[in-house]
Write a structure and sequence with these properties.
Elements lengths: L2 E6 L4 H13 L4 E3 L10 H13 L5 E7 L3 H7 L7 E3 L3 H9 L5 E5 L5 H13 L6 H15 L1
Parallel strand pairs: 1-2, 1-3, 3-5, 4-5
Length: about 150
């Protein structure tokens, strides 16, 4: 079971706290990279903290990022080499981002979905395996582009 590294900005703080509790109760080892209050902060700083850790431990860690919409977190997350972050707001996307794209960071918007929806998406995302095959070739092409550009 991979360790979960989680971060949020002020808008995602309450949802992050909820998910940490749910993840720990489900037996996951969770590392909280902040923020630690609802005081206004820059989401990007927390995306970098989470994603640098995941990128340096691809075999052992997944990341979860939460901000108001999830958009800022996902955009910043994908600037970190080795990260395949995906913003989800439905169960199908949560499943497909792992099955097809082997996403290693899940992004969600606390002003878009409820805490319970976020937990459902997280459970689906964590339990879905990458399908490999033609999808592995697509992920490899994506990562090769990143490496060579």
């Amino acid at each position: 079971m991979k360790q979960i590294v989680i971060g949020s900005d002020h808008a995602g703080y309450k949802m992050k706290q909820f998910l940490i509790q749910q993840l720990q109760e489900a037996g996951y080892d969770v590392e909280d990279k902040g923020t630690y209050s609802e005081d206004s902060v820059d989401a990007g700083a927390y995306a970098i903290k989470v994603c640098e850790d995941v990128a340096n431990n691809l075999d052992t860690k997944y990341g979860i990022l939460i901000c108001g919409t999830g958009i800022g977190m996902s955009m910043m997350a994908n600037k970190v080499k080795g990260i395949r972050a995906s913003l989800v707001s439905d169960l199908f996307s949560a499943e497909m981002t792992r099955a097809h794209n082997n996403a290693n960071v899940l992004c969600m918007g606390a002003r878009i979905i409820s805490e319970y929806m976020a937990w459902e998406f997280t459970k689906v995302w964590l339990s879905t395996e990458h399908l490999g095959g033609k999808y592995a070739k697509r992920v490899e092409a994506m990562m090769n582009y990143e490496k060579n550009r």
